[in-house]
Amino acid sequence: MKKLKILAAFAVCFAIAASLMACGNDSAPEGFTSITFWAAVDENTDAYYSELVDTYNNGQGKEDLVYVKYQPRGSDYSSNVGTTLSSSRAPEVMVISDKYFKNYAAQNYFTNIDELLANDALTTKDDSGQAILDLSDIPSRSVDRFRLNVETREAGTGTTLYGIPNGDNPTIIYYNTALFDAAGINMISVLEEDLDEYNRANGTSYMPHGYAEYTVDSAPAQNLKTSKDLNGETVVKVFNDLIPMNWEELRCLSYYFTPAYNSKAGGSTSTYGFLNEWWFSYGWSVGGDCVGYDEAKGQYIFTLGDENPNYLAVNDVTVNGTEYKAGEILLYADRTYVAEQNAQGDFMSSLYELPSQYEAFAEFCALSQTKGVSVDNYGKAGYGISPSPSTLNNQSKVAYFTSGSVAMVCDEYVQANTIAKSTLKSWDVAPLYQYREYVGGSTYTDADGEENLKVIGATYDGQEYTGELATAESGTPLVGYQAASSLSSCYVIPAKAGNHEAAWKFIQYAASAEGQAIVSQGNTQIPNQISYSFSDEFCNRESNLMDNILALSDAATYTDIGDWSYLEDGEWVNDWANVLNTDVRNGAMKLDTFFLQVTTSTNNDLSSSQYKIRITTK
């Protein structure tokens, strides 16, 4: 069961929205360089940023001869600080959201961090002579968010670094453990890479699934409880909250918590199985996205409805001049090249076809559309396992979850604070779903035309279903990427502020494992340095709000920026997102009509002079 934590209330010494004055920060001691630090805070994080500054001023700051004055700002302040950044009134250090970073960086508002990193004389080292900030210990995806070549407008790997990641706020699945328990689901927590060793050590036979069902005779461990499946048959259900479910497992698990499906399984007090308002994990897992760069046009084009197959490299292979390792998925330009070549070429023997971006997006849209009703003109039918925007009745996703109306919800780590303060007392987290194939497929259709999860140990079409992960002849697993979005932030040094070297000294501490350990106590971000975020010290700390913090630490290594952060701003997303989140997800508009309506206007918007950034790593 989840460890329940009671966070002690703390008094704040100022009203964040009303005062910009530092709290408890006296004048700098003689001989010290004084700098000002702005951070976006709320009631969960303010005290810890204050602690961060106090700890620095009373410790490392004395060695650096730097004194920091802390000035808190509202949680979304970085949306409107352009005027400040363009003037000499800018503070020496700021925390900036990745949502606005590219726009400001493109205007030369930030100091080049690479130059500071290259100056060994400015590197803060510990007693053993090691730098306290190890950039290689931070996920490269996180670091690349804050890189940009101002002249070429290229962003990502190989370009100039202007910000240091300040942790990560991953999206994750929150699940109601009481509802799972009532449905007869056994719950375990074993990483996929540890599963074989776990089975050997414990005499068990769990298969690499996020959710699986076994016959009683094939139960993977002793003393597991049994329950009824959707056909009323007795099975052993197992949920592993450290392995991602595939698309079929997510659906079939959701059926147990949706009345239209679960009458033979004993019903449920919930109304829906799952709630998610972001399509990213579906599309990204198979290598798709909502934009792709068109070399001929020299701009991004809208690709959310791209029907070209995605391809998984099952051997090392070169396609269209791009080298791929086995297990990597072709980029947009290269899968387009394959389509233009009519899927002809020697490289095809090293590629495995995955669902298109369109298919992945249709799967997402089907979650909230009425069971059996057509999602598009291809015959994709709705599942009805998720509330549509019209049925949320102005409730937040979290409120729907904490009320027990939905068994699982996808939301950001920061929402754990709200859940912990609710009346829901039994919950935990699990990774988002992933495209994964199993030998023999994952589901079958019963006599009533309903989808059911195949049961490990049962026989289908004369073959026993083993639950083994499918692989190519080369041995490459037939899986997509693990993918999740996150909204993160970084420490920057405004170019027009003074005292850049002193600012860099403080940032090194704030972004170090010690600094991140302090700030992350607010339970809004996973520390940026992998060695610390996976450590026993972090995973077992008393302030954690859930048992399975390891799932969040793992997610922080593979999260990516949301579409709102791709370019200079996210306004172009509104061309289509507003329609998606009303008519489409409410079931009032089919996907075919949706793409006819929004594609041209979105492409026109993306062609404007306003959008010139190109992400080299997407």
Brief characterization of the structure:
The chain has 618 residues and is an alpha/beta fold.
Question: Helices and strands in order, then pairings?
Answer:
Layout: E1 33-40, H1 46-58, H2 60-64, E2 66-73, H3 82-85, E3 93-97, H4 98-105, H5 113-117, H6 140-144, E4 148-149, E5 154-155, E6 164-165, E7 171-176, H7 177-182, E8 185-188, H8 195-202, E9 211-214, E10 227-228, E11 234-240, H9 247-255, E12 272-275, H10 280-285, E13 291-294, E14 299-302, E15 310-313, E16 317-319, E17 322-324, H11 332-340, E18 351-354, H12 357-368, H13 397-402, E19 406-412, H14 416-420, E20 427-430, E21 443-445, E22 451-453, E23 455-456, E24 459-460, E25 463-464, E26 484-486, E27 489-492, H15 500-510, H16 513-519, H17 530-533, H18 536-539, H19 549-555, E28 559-561, H20 574-584, H21 591-606, E29 614-615
Parallel strand pairs: 1-2, 1-3, 5-29, 8-11, 9-23, 12-19, 26-28
Antiparallel strand pairs: 3-27, 4-5, 6-27, 7-19, 7-20, 9-11, 10-11, 13-14, 15-18, 16-17, 21-22, 24-25
Helix pairs in contact: 20-21
**Basic shape:** globular
Structural class: alpha/beta
Oligomer: single chain
CATH architecture level-2 label of the domain at 33-165 and 489-524: 3-Layer(aba) Sandwich
Instruction: Using the CA coordinates, give the radius of gyration.
Output: 25 Å
The major β-sheet equals: 5 strands, mixed
How many helices? Answer: 21
Strand arrangement in the largest pleated sheet: 2-1-3-27-6
Mean pLDDT: 94
CATH level-four homologous superfamily name of the domain at 33-165 and 489-524: Periplasmic binding protein-like II
- Secondary structure tally: strands: 29
Percentage of residues assigned to helices? 25-40%
CATH class of the domain at 33-165 and 489-524: Alpha Beta
List low-confidence stretches.
1-25
Distance between the termini: 39 Å
Tell me the fraction of residues in β-strands, as a range.
15-25%
Q: Indicate the CATH topology of the domain at 33-165 and 489-524.
A: D-Maltodextrin-Binding Protein, domain 2
